[in-house]
Amino acid sequence: MASRSSLTILTHVTVWSLFGFVLLFYPPLTWNITVPPNFWVKQALNLVIMIGVFYANAFFVAPKLLFERNGKVLFVMWLVGVVACFLIVARTIELKLHVLDQMSRIMNKAPKDPFRLDFHLFMIMLLVMVTSTSLAMAQRWQADAQTRERVEKQHIASELSFLKAQINPHFFFNTLNNIYSLTYSDIPVSREAILKLSRMMRYVLYDTLSDSVPLRQELSFLKDYISLMALRLHECTTLEFEEPAPDKDYWIAPMLLLPFVENAFKHGSSTMQHSRIEVSLKVNEGALSLRVFNHIAHEKDGYQLDQGGIGLTNTRKRLDLLYENKYQLITRENAEDKTYEVVLTLQLDREKAGQIAEAV
């Protein structure tokens, strides 16, 4: 911070030095006369006044008047008044330092009319005020952009929290129903299922607080979920699970893949007809590919798998928020064969994403 502040000050000093030299000090050096010392004093005083007015306008007057509803008229009056006052003060300095008299003697000309407009100085001061006002407007636009960015990040953080709050109970209650069914048929297996659920809920409650989790951890959670759901599958339902072996350490948004798999078990398991559930996961050079296929064994009237349910709808929103332009989601529903397929391709991150709340 200190080095950045020093750099900013150095930049301002450099710009003002170049400005003063080019517009105030260099032109007299090109004249074929010897300019008296009082003239340089006058030029230096003009530059100091310009600098003071520049920063007063940029940081105080323009932000207060220019962006107020009824302040534009007052700002125009301020602008005209400042330029006029500067010209009066500059001419007063010339008279007090006797610059006009000395210059007329050196140039062998009659003294200038003290009430005549100094057009050159007028244009320089107008340039200073325009630049100062432009700086104030740029700072305001930058502040507004930062505010919009903070609001957008806060909105994303709130929406993601809401989405995860919806997904987690949705998953939890569905899994409890599965365990409840197991308690009637196999108590030891139901106990094992409760242990798995306990481990999974620890992940849901604590590890998903961050915006991203290690991919291996997410895959372990998904594997536990699949093995838990497999415990209650009827023999009519065939389950195929292809587990990936990531080549490197990657990070992923927590519980992002679960709704696709959960949807397959919810609508693909059957006790009356042959059905198949396929879950294939591949990770290669930072690209994750998920394919979930299932027969539609349970479908309510008018229910669209791609649109219905809390999990899938919110997962689409999370993908849009977190992986914009970094994912491709394809869904295929075959009404004749009564099958449903989801193919997700996602570009993973090699580094952990910072929490949105901290960024705000």
Low-confidence stretches: 301-309, 355-360
What oligomeric state is this? single chain
Q: Looking at this structure, what is the CATH superfamily of the largest domain? A: Histidine kinase-like ATPase, C-terminal domain
Beta strand % = 5-15%
Provide the domain count: 2
Q: How far is it from the N-terminal to the C-terminal residue, by CA? A: 19 Å
**Total count of helical runs of at least 4 residues:** 10
**Main beta-sheet annotation:** 5 strands, mixed
| Helicity range | 55-70%
The gross shape turns out to be: rod-shaped
Q: What CATH first level of the largest domain would be assigned?
A: Alpha Beta
CATH architecture of the largest domain: 2-Layer Sandwich
Task: Output the structural class.
Answer: alpha+beta
Order of secondary-structure elements: HHHHHHEHEEHEEHEEH
Radius of gyration: 36 Å
CATH T-level topology of the largest domain:
Heat Shock Protein 90
User: How are the strands of the largest sheet arranged?
Assistant: 2-4-5-7-6
Mean pLDDT over the residues: 82
Using DSSP, what is the number of strands?
A: 7
